[in-house]
């Protein structure tokens, strides 16, 4: 154990050295002008000067989409007394193969929003952790739930049932209106979004106006180009099956098989059904229609499935209900626009390996609710803008941790012919198998219970140093030292360090949930808002992982000169 603790401390030191070195190289002048962008999904209101208090305003908030994010947001804002108009393309129950596992951190957000009863009556299953399988070995990783109420755990279910329950609950509020229709464009007037143009179920073209429009129309959003710079990556596809009438090796746990070429997932979605998701790297998958997919699943995947599930897996393949879904990843790159916000998969996506999407969406809703609560009247456009300008920054601690972990774990869990990547994969499995702080820390990150980017970086460097130590002991050789160096390099490459956009787009804001930041911007006097104490006129850079969520910084606090102000750093693990 002493050796393992020494490796952790060494990892921490090397991690800070690496981060500081990268940060020092990134301190260059920012771009002088914001990149201009054109929109193909906005419609100008020509020749009209609309008053914010116009009688034509249909609601306080228009929500585009009634999936997990849209339905939860509709209920949340409606419960706060807002008039909400939800426009959803299809109000029938969805049938998807993702969005079926809610992490404990997401369930806590569900409780905070008063929606915890939406997982009742749908045969949802409690999830208490994960089980990892690799080369015949297995280990169980439990969620660190000792400090929480006994009801707190993950939940897995049919996605459509969960969404319908939230829609039904939102519809019970008299000030929430759900309408089936397809939004074709956002209505823009002098740079401000005033509402939407949409087509009803009967084909009639209508417009709706509100001081705030929230776009959460999912991963296939046709409106996101108006509000962000979408850079969608598709690293792999999921092939979905349903296994029936069989038991998982570890009851009430998600199962991850570190297979070749990429992971296989199993988790319960009802008392009699187990979802299987087979990850297939790349954007092309074997054809289902000509039998290539069934052959691939039986010859390549089935031999790597745990023995307890093998027969049920073969039966599911023979049954033929095989579905595919591209795994999209899209970083949040918003164009802050008065009168509109992006949320959910329309705004930000990550690889679904870790099941963090719903946790991020529900966390974003809590942030938005808290920002809007002090505002009695959303028609006060200037004040609304000041309150909303902090949203994209305040969401970062949770979102960046879960997003980065999902991408990094997927890269580590995929097989590789590179020896350093192989060592990293094995080191990760063995590190998690150690138990104690070595498993509780990473699992608390994955579960959304500890959304701290610094803890994420420390654990990944600890895994790397653990792997290097195993390579070098008991007798290091030049070959092993070279592989160890490449292993460290591979661990650093898992994180994308890049400069932030100019600070005018992401104001530095107050947030009590984080005590760590890595840049201070030159701040002019006199720029204040209720939730953004500072608004920088200069340019600044940061490591993407360490977005600052600072407290109230004095306006004369420049270049990290904090005076006598005390800072408290919580333990990294």
What class, by secondary structure content? alpha/beta
Identify the CATH homologous superfamily of the largest domain. FAD/NAD(P)-binding domain
Tell me the domain tally: 3
Overall CATH class of the largest domain: Alpha Beta
Query: What gyration radius follows from the Cα positions, in whole Å?
Result: 24 Å
Mean pLDDT: 81
* Number of helical elements: 14
Overall geometric form: globular
Q: Tell me the number of strands.
A: 18
Query: Sheet bearing the most strands, described?
Result: 8 strands, mixed
Terminal residue distance:
16 Å
Instruction: Work out the helicity level.
Output: 25-40%
CATH fold name of the largest domain, please? Answer: FAD/NAD(P)-binding domain
Which architecture of the largest domain would the CATH scheme give at its second level? 3-Layer(bba) Sandwich
Ranges with pLDDT <50 over ≥5 residues?
26-40, 46-55, 497-573
* Residue fraction in strands: 15-25%
GO cellular component, one term: membrane
EC number: 1.14.14.17
Family: Belongs to the squalene monooxygenase family.
Subcellular location: Membrane
Keywords:
single chain; 573 residues; alpha/beta; FAD/NAD(P)-binding domain; D-Amino Acid Oxidase, Chain A, domain 2; 8-stranded mixed beta sheet; 7-stranded mixed beta sheet; 14 helices; 18 strands; disordered C terminus
